[in-house]
């Protein structure tokens, strides 16, 4: 695996809520009251990437409910009493431990029969924690439950496929009457994720530069998988104006590494990204961490948004 350099260029003490503002919208139910007591295998998923897996693997035999409602930021989700009660009535909980502390607590305290922690289904790695100052403090606070591990594994199709296999196996065990369907659906999903990985590998193989700048340090796994370097402006308040010294440092790095683009997220203000880009004579574009799907997303589901991300990266990196 390629070794990836990750540098936090503009440290700040802004919270994850300022850096992130994606919402969750999927085909699954978002009414947590509908989480249990249906005639299907009832699965409560913590946020979109988990709900998508449950839907793809479970198909018509599962009833999937997302704890993260449309308009909510996944990292800062607080579970309501109603959601906690609904969780108790469900057959399975699918979550990523460390990303949403309130979900972790609710699942741990619940009597739900099947608890599937995606963080145990693939190897989590540390990304960007070598940075000192406020940025490191911010990073440590945001991911303290993961002890410095980066939770954004779903953005790497290979790791997402590993999680899918684990989820499929758990569904087969918990609902043996439909095990054959879960197995077939899992195999199909893993194959599709493999094809997506091939698209990224081939699409990013020959580029003018391997470095990209993003306002959110979410793409460490993806960068490492395909030999890229993510330069993250982590923790920077989207509404703040970068100092002249910071812009100068960024401009120097951009020229040295052939950077062309500053990426921002669909639902986060593009003000800071555009300010930095203008001062450094760079372009701006969207790179989506896929923590939720909304009407503003460049795609209707995980695969179409990832394809849009690949297209954006190829343009920014000067793919041949």
Biggest β-sheet: strands ordered side by side in the sheet: 1-7-6-8-9
- Overall mean pLDDT stands at 81
- β-strand percent reads 5-15%
The helix/strand series, from N terminus to C terminus, equals: EHEHEHEHEHHHEHEHEHEH
**Could you give the distance between the termini?**
22 Å
Helix-strand category: alpha/beta
Largest sheet: 5 strands, parallel
Chain oligomer state = single chain
Radius of gyration: 20 Å
Low-confidence stretches: 1-34, 129-146, 235-240
Residues in helices, as a percent range: 40-55%
Shape: globular
* Count, helices: 11
Extended strand count: 9
Features:
globular; 9 strands; single chain; five-stranded parallel β-sheet; four-stranded parallel β-sheet; disordered N terminus; 320 residues; alpha/beta
Secondary structure topology:
Elements: E1 7-8, H1 16-19, E2 41-45, H2 48-58, E3 62-66, H3 81-88, E4 92-95, H4 101-109, E5 114-117, H5 133-142, H6 157-174, H7 179-203, E6 211-214, H8 220-225, E7 229-232, H9 244-257, E8 261-264, H10 271-280, E9 283-286, H11 302-317
Parallel strand pairs: 1-7, 2-3, 2-4, 4-5, 6-7, 6-8, 8-9
Helix pairs in contact: 2-6, 6-7, 7-11
Overview of this structure, please?
The protein is α/β, with parallel strands linked by helices. The chain is built from eleven helices and nine strands. Strands 1-7-6-8-9 form a five-stranded parallel sheet, with helices on both faces. A four-stranded parallel sheet has the order 3-2-4-5, with helices on both faces. Mean pLDDT is 81; it is low at 1-34, 129-146 and 235-240.
């Amino acid at each position: 695996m390629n070794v990836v350099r990750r540098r936090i260029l503009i440290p700040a003490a802004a919270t994850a809520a300022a850096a992130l503002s994606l919402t969750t919208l999927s085909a699954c139910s978002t009414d947590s009251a509908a989480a249990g007591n249906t005639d299907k295998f009832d699965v409560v998923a913590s946020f979109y990437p988990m709900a998508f897996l449950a839907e793809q693997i479970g198909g018509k035999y599962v009833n999937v409910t997302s704890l993260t409602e449309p308009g909510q930021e996944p990292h800062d989700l607080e579970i309501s009493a109603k959601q906690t009660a609904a969780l108790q009535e469900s057959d399975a909980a699918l979550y990523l431990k460390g990303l949403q502390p309130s979900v972790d607590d609710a699942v741990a305290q619940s009597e739900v029969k099947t608890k599937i922690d995606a963080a145990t289904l693939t190897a989590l790695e540390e990304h960007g924690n070598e940075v000192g100052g406020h940025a490191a403090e911010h990073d440590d606070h945001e991911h303290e439950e993961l002890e410095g591990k980066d939770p954004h594994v779903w953005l790497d199709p290979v790791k997402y496929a590993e999680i899918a296999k684990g989820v499929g196996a758990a569904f087969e065990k918990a609902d043996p009457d439909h095990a054959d369907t879960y197995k077939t659906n899992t195999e199909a999903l893993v194959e599709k994720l493999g094809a997506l990985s091939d698209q990224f590998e081939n699409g990013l193989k020959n580029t003018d530069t391997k470095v990209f700048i993003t306002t959110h340090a979410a793409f460490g796994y993806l960068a490492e998988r395909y030999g890229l370097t993510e330069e993250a402006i982590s923790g920077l308040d989207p509404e703040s104006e970068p100092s002249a010294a910071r812009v100068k440092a960024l401009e120097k790095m951009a020229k040295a590494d052939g950077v062309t683009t500053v990426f921002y997220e669909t639902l986060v203000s593009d003000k800071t990204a555009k300010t930095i880009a203008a001062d450094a004579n760079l372009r701006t574009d969207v790179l989506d961490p896929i923590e939720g799907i909304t009407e503003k997303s460049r795609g209707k589901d995980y695969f179409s948004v990832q394809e849009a991300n690949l297209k954006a990266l190829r343009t920014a990196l000067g793919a041949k």
